[in-house]
């Protein structure tokens, strides 16, 4: 089964629309359920992508939303769709909400607690994900900041050391981490505000920003190679997506019925991916963790919790997830090891995202290319 749960495509004052491979989705507003919605509308784009045989996966629900409302859409198993939760803000709001709203809105409890420590006037949730798992833009007397909530104290301290000892001296483009404030048993991290939008929101043509991102990764890798002995003693505490991907593929390889004839190739691929050079990596570089300010032509990489020394090409494969393997390899370029890492991890991602990849011509072509790159 594909790891893609579906997408929330649009939220407006009167409704929500998107698609999911589940037979129905559950919709809630500000934590209150409004019921289930069937996924039966035709979506030719999903069918063309090979994710649905007949394309009858679309949903549309009628809502009545006010400024600051939060819409969540999940599968029946409780798994959120991509872009869920979604914050509804009408255009006339300018994206900002009054701090007074936080005191009477359960989704913004962290904002209300933070307002007791900082002088706040307005706030703006970012990326449509308020609460424990999101960043929120604040406006105080000294300007705008970004606050990230729900961080464990040990993780907050570790991330501060990484910003101070690696990201700042290496000159990597990322928002500076200013301070950490305790909110109950958790911490709120206060960052510089970067006036950009996630790369994933730029639509067709987002690949034009890849050279800038690759430049920052190369800067990080050079610093990591030069100062490895003096870096923090342990990598990011949260397991990187690449490590979880490798463990998943190994489990599939050891179960013949799930590997669908891939067992020998998967074992070969995993062995060689693990032997690739390890470079200092972001570890969670999906496109929503790359912010782009198109007007100024600048980027920033955010959310460094899963940094670590990982196989070369892994960050780029995750960044380009969804692109065909030959396209990803061409855009990545670099050494043979980097190109193999990109193609190998692309194969592992695609076998999760696209049911039937193993038996398709594209899957066979990716396997052939992996062996060509490694001479196996």
TrEMBL record:
| UniProt-listed InterPro entries | Aminoglycoside_PTrfase, Kinase-like_dom_sf
The protein's name in its UniProt record: Aminoglycoside phosphotransferase domain-containing protein
Signal sequence range: none
SUPFAM superfamilies, per this entry? Protein kinase-like (PK-like)
Q: Which residues form the Aminoglycoside phosphotransferase domain?
A: 136-335
